[in-house]
Design brief:
Chain A: Its main location: membrane. Chain A: One of its GO terms (biological process) is glutathione transmembrane transport. Chain A: This is Thiol reductant ABC exporter subunit CydC. The complex is a heterodimer of chains A (about 550) and B (about 575). Chain A is of the alpha/beta class. Chain A is built from 17 helices and 11 strands. The radius of gyration of chain A is 34 Å and the shape is elongated. Chain B has a 5-stranded parallel sheet with strand order 6-7-8-3-9, sandwiched between helices. In chain B, helix 17 links the parallel strand 7 and strand 8. Chain B has 2 domains: about 325 residues, ABC transporter type 1, transmembrane domain (ABC transporter transmembrane region fold); about 210 residues, Rossmann fold (3-Layer(aba) Sandwich). The longest helix of chain B is centred in the middle third of the chain and has 53 residues. Classes of the chains: A alpha/beta (about 550), B alpha/beta (about 575). At the A-B interface, helix 2, helix 3, helix 4, helix 5 and helix 7 of A face helix 2, helix 3, helix 4, helix 6 and helix 7 of B.
Chain lengths: ~550, ~575
Amino acid sequence: MRPLLHIARRLLKAEPVAFLRGLALGITVLAMGAALLGLSGWFVTAAAAAGIAGIGIGFDFFRPSAGVRFLALGRSGARYGERMLTHDATLRALAALRLGLYAGITRLPFEAQTRLRGAEALNRLTSDVDALDGLLLRLVLPAVSAVAVQAGAFVALWVLVAPAVAWGVLLSFGLGGGVALVFTLRHARARSEATEAALQSLRAQALDLAQSRADLAVAGALARQEAGLANTIRAEARARDGLETTERQGSAAIALTTGLAATVALALGGPLAAAGTISPARAAIGVFTALALGETLALLRRGLAELGRMQAAGARVTALSDTPPRPKPAAPAPRPDRAAPLLQVTALRHHRAGAARDTFGPLDLSLSRGEMVLLTGPSGAGKSTLLATLAGLIAPTAGEIRLLGAPLAAWPEADLRAHLTLVPQRSALIAGSVAENLALALPAGTVLPEAEAWAALEAVALADVLRAREGLATRLGPGGAGLSGGQARRLVLARAALRRADVLLLDEPTEGLDPATAAAMLSGLRAFAPESGFLVVSHRNADAGAATRSVSLTVPGHA
Amino acid sequence: MPQTDEPPAANPGRADAALTRLAAPATPALRRAGALSALAELLWAAQAALVALALGGLISGTERLSPLAAAAGFLALAALRALLDARAGALAQRAATALVESTRHRLIGAASRQDARARSPAPAELASLAAEKVAMLAPWAARYSPAMARVRIVPLVLLALTLPFSWAAALVLLVAGPLIPVFMALVGMAARDASQRQMAEIGTLNTLLVDRIAAVADLRLLGAEARAGADLAAASDDLRTRTMRVLAVAFLSSTVLELFSALGVAMVAVYVGFALLGELNFGSWGGLSPEAGIFLLMIAPEFFQPLRDLAAAWHDRASALAVADEIETAEAAIAASGTILGNGAPAAALPPAPFSWRGLVLSPGPGAARLGPPDGAVRPGEALAIAGPSGVGKTTLLAALAGLIRPEAGEIRWGETVLSDSTADAIRAGIGWLPQAPRFIDAPLGEALMLGRAGDLDAALTAAQAQGIVAALPGGLSARLGDLGGGVSGGEARRLMIARAHAAKASLILADEPTADLDHETAQAVLAGLLALRATGAALIVASHDPAVLAAMDRVLPMTAEGGA
């Protein structure tokens, strides 16, 4: 429950005024609804009494009937305003929540970020955010309005009917609502987590079956995988049935509560009216108001049903949003030593926790200005891990890295990224125009200089391709969809080149390119940034032609 | 900002028919559930009568039913009503779950037997269809369909109960009631439009967030985390403005609905009050009693309640229609594609024997020219290369040899056994399969490699010289290779597949471009692994255009584009 309260506070803080206004209107809607039915009940009963007594002529029917019409119209109007206000505020608050989530994810360690890129994890993340949209709309705001309206109704019933009826109605709703809440709190989370887990596993297994269909068929394992999936489908159905049962029981508790409150109002108010303590019309107010107050709980019903899902989603979103800030190196920031090599690596080693051998190393390496060093080695020699370590994304197990004369860890994040950039093998583009993608390389708020952008595109031999389309305005879909693999690769490299960093670490930059384009691109990059040093991982012998020298990595333990 | 295309507007008539067909098995249960929930709703009339009798007695001073007795009856009926409603809910929910479950079973069962050429539905599409999308049928069945049943029954019965007391009150309901369906039709159209647009909008926001999160490591390397965050904020704000415009319409329509029901109730209340005062002398059959007046006031809101429930569940119907349409499209695509031979079930392997094919005619895909690959044969322990430029149909031939595509003519033999539906599983039990881009199922590596068969995996890894790959993984054989292949490269994955062939004691290996995209050293390791398999007596059929691979084989079978039939 704690993470949910935490998120509710965060959402409220994002738009406090709008939510307060929405809350006020929400209370108005419920109060007018209760008043409408109570007034109608009183009006009809009192009119009947006056009619029987033959004093119908003297009965003031104008004000009650005007009140009934006013309440009917006003309630609908207030409801419209309340919905618009709270939905707008919720959308704003959710945007803030998404941003907080994004900011938290930017602070995660590199390995954790890599794990988040899987479709599975991303799917879960967005559905978590979506699940939280009902937290204020369907849970917190209705709960607060319910309490406020019940309190108001208590006072009104005390004055208009009788203290006993006021107490009876309040206690009925308190008891019934409390039981429904406690029951849901107790069961909903586990059941909704079970349902969610079953659904995720169903999706994963269906994906496996569809993707590895041929492979499974040849291995004679298709029937087995199918049987496993059939079991998961059944398990998901059982889990969902359990969850729905919880929801149904909660709804039944709420329906019974309203029935109980009206019963209590009738059983307490009726005898009072029979004894002449209050008029029958006042007793009617009690019964009708109790019935209308059922709305306060009914609004909470959907929120309660979603509570379990929200709890689980809230816990995950809070955990990600609250990622602690990255450790900052002790001030002051080092100054670049122009005389030192760009990169100086000594006895560098990496060992993955739980693995039986080292990933790479020990390794010594140095990179100077104007150099392009080719890093080769068989698959499994840890080339990509080495580049991530040199870029400060992964901590080495032992050894030292010096960038421009100072230890890598001494550079503050912004300076580090300004001096060194890495283009990983699976580098991502974002949805948007080519210009927007390139602009990511520049400091926030800077406009992309067109000439510089075209020069970078020229350097990676992509300018002609884009000129044939819509130039810098060419639009890309999510993940850079719309470009071929090789084109996307070159756009990523152009973006990195625009950083004008001293050190460029490139992981398989020529993958998927024909040899002529690959050679043109590597020499183009060197010409674009003659003062920089390049460290290039490649398995293509042809790339050696563009490099100043080669360094070969071996698989540790196999040397 | 990205503009995700709006989902193609489903043809409503077609989607309606699809949903009806899909839900046909659940219909009887849903009908029973609907009737039961309508009955529960109608119990309210009895509750109202009890209250009316008690209050009416208090007014006239002639007690026909004591308030306590009325209260007791009211509570008992409320309990019965809640019970019936819960029963109806349980019935509808069971039918809904069964509908979802059987649709999933049918989809998966059909899709898993599609042949190797089938491209539609794409795996990710099928997975999301079978998981969260099919689940959207449940709210339609469990909520919308009982609400629809209540709309058909409850207002009519309540109207019939009103009429004997007052034709004027009945007239108010009769006018306000049908106006609501008229507005509902308008609301329905607007809400369907609005919700479709809104779904697209929210989808876009999620796409945007996912896109940025997937690129977050790159954004850090570019020092662009803050910049991308600001973009995200601007996009969210823009989308919010547009979503609110859509919601303004949707809320307005539902407000009209609420207004009509509130006005209906208010008019009944005012009419009843005036009639009881004696101010109005028409509309009832010779005067309204206090009991009748209170009764009419109490059942008026319930007259409108089913319509409000239906409006609330409207969105469930829109989602179910969209999903039904998608399911129908996917099922049609699956039915249109070919199936594999056999069942893909475990079988006893046939003894090693010469493997041959002749006279094959293959269709690589819809619209593509037919292939007539050259005849060929391979003996145990022999290595055959199938050579030819990319696109010539080597992959299609290998798939046909494994019984994953039905040839249009010709035959494939394992010794004397002809490949057919009844022999395919047994023939495949002797085959080791090495696709160009191996992918492992989401399970611990040991299980992903063995797939439930017995065998000595350690020895197989040693034979394939793949222990080093496993040793570098955190957790070794219990490591899970997720959907981004977390931890192994393409070359390593192929060597692990060779280890699988060792473990399965395969006597025929089908390998597709085993050295493509690999550095020299890794290519050597893969080739050595294949030759080690041959050394155990297995036959090799390797599709490749790598000279080093062709040189290592015993024979080369060239495939040319002119082979088309």
